[in-house]
Amino acid sequence: MAEIVRMPKLSDTMTEGVVAKWHKKVGDKVKSGDLLADIETDKATMEFESFQDGILLHIGIPEKQAVPVDAIIAVLGKEGEDIKAILADAGKAKQTEVGTKQDATVSNVKQEASAQKQELPKGVEVVRMPKLSDTMTEGTIEKWHKKVGDKVKSGELLADIATDKATMEFESFQDGVLIYQGIKEGQPVAVDAIIAILGKGGEDVNAILAAVGTQSEAKAEVKQAVGATTATTQKVAATANVAVKTSTTSNGRIKASPLAKALAKEKGIDLSRVNGSGDGGRITKFDIENYKGGSGARSNFVGVESFTDEPASQMRKTIARRLLESKNGAPHFYLNIEVDMDSAISSREAINKISEVKVSFNDLVIKACASALRRHPRVNSSWMGDKIRLNHHIHIGMAVAVEDGLLVPVIRFADGKAITDIAAETKDLGKKAKEKKLQPQDWEGNTFTVSNLGMFGIESFTSIINSPESCILSVGAIRAVPVVKNGAVVPGNTMKLTLACDHRSVDGATGAAFLQTLKTFIENPVMMFI
Known about the structure:
Blueprint: E1 3-6, E2 16-22, E3 29-30, E4 35-40, E5 45-49, E6 54-59, E7 66-68, E8 72-77, H1 84-103, H2 105-115, E9 125-128, E10 138-144, E11 151-152, E12 157-162, E13 167-172, E14 176-181, E15 188-190, E16 194-199, H3 205-226, H4 229-233, E17 242-246, H5 258-267, H6 285-289, H7 314-329, E18 332-340, H8 342-354, H9 361-375, E19 381-383, E20 388-390, E21 396-398, E22 400-402, E23 405-407, E24 410-411, H10 419-434, H11 440-443, E25 448-452, E26 471-485, E27 488-502, H12 508-523
Parallel strand pairs: 21-25, 25-26
Antiparallel strand pairs: 1-8, 2-4, 2-7, 3-6, 4-5, 6-8, 9-16, 10-12, 10-15, 11-14, 12-13, 13-17, 14-16, 18-27, 19-20, 21-24, 22-23, 26-27
Helix pairs in contact: 2-3, 9-10, 9-12
């Protein structure tokens, strides 16, 4: 019998998704574990695999088109199978569900609010048994790859999960410590049951379980009120911040992710010649992209196509909405200053001669900003509507340009970190941003932002404030220019800085004083190392 494939809900905030690329076309044979499509959310592009064998009978949406969560995106079945009745029934069921939800809106809002009263500690992620197909009601942990107390990195295997159709690899989407395992190997549990908890280590697991229990009860009442069983059906592994991949550990098959297999096929690379960097030698996309051996056929160059209308990505939509809210809601004003960079240049050269981690000019600016913010706490503030929050901690956001837009990973407690520690962290976060591997803890909580376009030769520019922050600093290029020193015109190096301020929380004099202090630190780097 044909099976309907719906747009999965890949995070708690996701309301719609985009099929960035279909890897199969109508009429193709599909095996369990084959890569069906790449699905784009506002935070990442993820691989979407088939959980059953069959023929792809129907594609519900074209590439680049956004559709709501739970919308029908494909149908798999037997060759020649009539799916008109299935699609019609699914559409009617969806309309009935929407009407029921509308009737229960008030009850839904009240009970959801109640469900949020018990908040989890920061950094804690609850991992539940995912529902991997419409027929799945329970799953079994065949093998745990981590034990309680182990550190877990994003992308590492947590466990192998057996369903009624396949055994899947269960990967973590965040760093942390495994502080709780809810089930033993070989033990079947119901879909949505808690199977693990990740945290920072040392959390009160009983308190977390109690809080999760309160949330689950309230959410269950909401589901009962609105009859939202379909949404639960589509709550896949990524909702619990995990990725599910087909296991290739049996029968002597090569261990590789579906995307790695697809890339290897495209590039003509023999997987048996590739050394995998993942758990147990598993071959990843990174391994294929960095393979140096003989690749045979070369991948075709893909040029830039021109479109009259280009659908906005989920990330671009989010950026547009937030920046419009900030620009229209916050009264911006701008302050400019020029900084002598001679001492900064010589200081950086001296540091890089002895440091294993190479320091960039952007790292120096971030360190200088952190030091200056400590002296000017009002610049390190947030406009909260009816109050101004003076942040005692200094978390500096670092604007990073990526293919689909802009991400702002955060250097936490930057004022207390050595310049080399900041340099190592900016490199790591920048790499994660470009690879779309940032996790919520990587981009949340910034109190001030630095945006640097100097590497593109931009002399000066203005930025839009990243609300609810009060300020954002724009950093231009270092220019070799004639300057006046001791009454004489001599060769020099300068850099222009522009501070955008929210006039509701920062006055002109406050912003100017901050820039003066920042200028002093950059022109005399030794002062911020004391």
